[in-house]
Amino acid sequence: MKRNIITLIEEEVERTQVLVFTGGLAKRMGMINRAKAMLELCGRPLIDWCIEYYSSCGFKDFIFLIGYRGEEIEEYIGNGERYGIKVTYVRDPTIAKVGKGKALKNAIEVGAVDTNRRALICFPDDIFLDETLPLKLLLHHMDGVKKRGILATVVFTTAIEYPFGVGELDENYIVTRFEEKPVIRISTSTGMYMLEPQAIDMIRELVDINTPYSIEFEDVLLPRLAKSKRLYAMTIPRDTWIPINTLKELERAENILRNAQRLL
Question: Which residues contact 80 (CB under 8 A, 6 or more apart)?
């Protein structure tokens, strides 16, 4: 029985394509003049951390959606042989305003994304400290598909640190309570998603590449699925997710990882 379960997981991992969005401009990083995925964390590019994180769980079919300075990423990864993965590159459409929604639709339209297979969507600037989370997500998602008919799963953290100080004021504008960077107990998306083929195919209808504004798939697909009760959630502790959107967060991530390595 144990062997059968392991075989089942291996088969489902093999059926899953990993979509890695790397085309962002990293505006909150300032003028870094390089692809954000090539920024180094503990001496290694973020894209290395991303590939090795998912490939260590058995995922081997990677599709990289590349945009700004994407040639750096393509040159660095190459054919994926040194990682032991299959690699496909898709350049963002050559229009002024793209967004992840248009990038995804373009990848579908050119045939890089298989709409007959589930997809695990991720970003190189999200670091997770749970080494088996992608497998846990796959099993949780499959259970939701079977028992609840869901079409997509979002990994949420149960709380997040608010980046500003907050205060409570009385009617005379006297501050009665102040807290710097409080932890807010609100389910927050970590940017890791699992999509069924039907959800991927919905992008064709929901995204128009010719619009004069950028489109994020999170803005058009996830609300639609939530409204129809086809969106599932998986929650993880706050301290297992390290988002990297600013240079300060990159420094924080480096400190956390170096301290963790010292404890090993």
Answer: 62, 86, 87
